[in-house]
Specification:
By secondary structure, this protein is an alpha/beta fold. It contains nine helices and 14 strands. The protein is globular, with a radius of gyration of 19 Å.
């Protein structure tokens, strides 16, 4: 992979907002980008040269509604040693002195109760984002509700949350991600952390959820997807099950809470960090 040539596609979003960037990422799900970065006013996507199809990108953009405008350009970037890049950019994360998230090249760290090694690649999250941090904290604060239970990590990315749940003693954890590369990465990380017997990962969306199956469901996804899928999340939870959601701003909490409560979920608590929000619901 180190010698792979990539295309950088720059999407200029007008007006730019994190929400508009998240909407655009969701719309581009059928284009096999391996990662995205946000550099206002741009969303930048990275895709192997041989997989890039500008016509497919134009087709997606032509189908967008008119709430914001997008112009795009592309450029070939030379082969990059991504491992070296990550070594420079990925620092360990410690959540409440209980959980450490690190890469294989981090050595000599003080061990915490739960230690997670993530093979850093071009995408899918490494725990640095505030929402991932809060979701980890939510799990750690609800250990008795995780131990021995069935947990679903919806939009699992690198599977940090699924792996943490497995290490906390969940009977079984599942991860689903719309990106096939992410789903494979998630399983690889489960093997690295020696919990692959307890973690299953799948490529798909909320339609894969099974009714009444899960004790805990974790969804760190953008606001619009949450609003769309919370009714499905609720149906998939056992009575008394817990739903933790993040990926949206504090000001969006009333909207998320309204959808959840109309779907048979009871508000339990919320957390916030740097303007981002995490909410805990209980299935009635």
């Amino acid at each position: 992979m180190n010698s792979q040539e990539y295309i950088e596609v720059s999407f200029r979003i007008t007006p730019y907002s994190d929400e508009n960037a998240e909407i655009l990422m969701a719309e581009l799900e059928d284009v096999p980008f391996e990662s995205f970065t946000c550099e206002e006013p741009y969303l930048k996507g990275y895709i192997p040269k041989e997989k890039y199809n500008s016509g497919m990108v134009r087709l997606v953009l032509d189908g967008l509604d008119e709430s914001f405008g997008v112009e795009f350009s592309s450029a070939l970037i030379p082969p990059v040693n991504w491992n070296a890049v990550w070594e420079q950019q990925f620092s360990p994360i410690v959540v409440d002195n209980k959980c450490t998230i690190k890469a294989p090249f981090h050595k000599g760290l003080k061990r915490t109760r739960f230690n997670i090694t993530i093979e850093p690649k071009m995408a899918f999250g490494t725990g640095h984002h505030q929402t991932t941090y809060m979701m980890c904290r939510a799990l750690l604060d609800n250990e008795s509700s995780v131990r021995g239970k069935v947990v679903m990590d919806m939009g699992c990315g690198t599977a940090i949350l699924a792996i943490l749940a497995a290490k906390m003693g969940a009977a079984h954890t599942y991860g689903i991600d719309i990106d096939a590369v992410a789903a494979v990465s998630a399983y690889d990380n489960a093997k690295i952390n020696k919990v692959s017997r307890h973690v299953e990962t799948y490529c798909g969306d909320a339609s894969l959820l099974q009714a009444g199956k899960y004790d805990v469901l974790l969804a760190n996804i953008n606001r619009n997807i949450l609003i769309q899928d919370i009714p499905t999340y609720s149906r998939s939870l056992k009575k008394g099950g817990l739903l933790f959601v993040s990926g949206f701003y504090v000001e969006d909490m009333p909207m998320i809470r309204g959808v959840a409560e109309r779907s048979g979920l009871r508000f339990a608590s919320s957390d916030s960090l740097d303007g981002w929000c995490c909410i805990k619901f209980v299935k009635s």
